[in-house]
Amino acid sequence: MTLVLRTTTRTTEPAPALPVLPTGTDPLLQLQAETRPADGPGAIRCVGHSRELALGGIPVMCSACRARRDWLLINHGRNVWVRCRCGNQWLEPEISRADFDALVGGPLGTTYPSIEAGLAALGFDGVFAGMYME
Fold first, then answer.
1. Taking the model in full, what pTM does it have?
2. Cα(26)–Cα(67) distance, rounded to whole angstroms?
3. Please, what's the b/e burial string for 19-51 (b: 16 or more CB within 10 A of its CB; e: otherwise)?
4. Which residues lie below 8 Å from residue 80, measured CB to CB, with a gap of 6+?
5. Max alpha carbon distance in the chain (Å)?
6. How far apart, in whole angstroms, are the C-alpha atoms of residue 28 and residue 125?
7. Is the dihedral of CA 9, 100, 104, 55 positive or negative?
8. pLDDT tens-digit profile of 97-114?
9. Contact assessment for residue 119 and residue 71, using Cβ atoms and an 8 Å cutoff
């Protein structure tokens, strides 16, 4: 999975490659590897934030569509991105990994085959641009 940044020039470390099992290995080990929850250094986690978001007392606003609420926060490694329903996304250095972990209610969640599939399923792929979801 690749996370594409849209409005930042900052670079991040590449995610380590996940181990690939040879095709001749035990089918139970392959099944275990395929059904393992998405965690670890290569995992991309998302959480919705429907309310307004204020960083340092300043409300966050989308630079593309001027939206003020209904965000998707995306965590990969120590970085957190904010994504709007219009598809605009930016790295937000004011939100730390600890802040993101505090917003996540628990380890349960839905696993998607790719980041694009997850964004489409959650409605943050640009289709709902200009709409607030309650």
1. 0.65
2. 50
3. eeeeeeeeeeeeeeeeeeeeeeeeebbbbeeee
4. 73, 74, 91, 92, 95, 96, 97, 99, 100
5. 56
6. 35
7. negative
8. 888 888 887 666 777 878
9. no
How big is the CA angle at 102 (ends 4 and 80), to the nearest 5 degrees? 15
Smallest Cα–Cα separation from 14: which of 47, 41, 54? 41
Query: CA–CA separation, 122 vs 116, rounded Å?
Result: 10
Number of Cβ within a 10 Å radius of residue 1 = 15
Fill in the amino acid letter for 27.
P
Tell me the two tokens of residue 39. 């965690």
The string of pLDDT tens digits covering residues 5-42 is 444 444 445 555 555 555 566 777 666 655 555 566 67
- The single residue listed with the structure tokens 């965690």 is 39
Burial of 99 (0-12, 13-18, 19+ CB in 10 A): middle
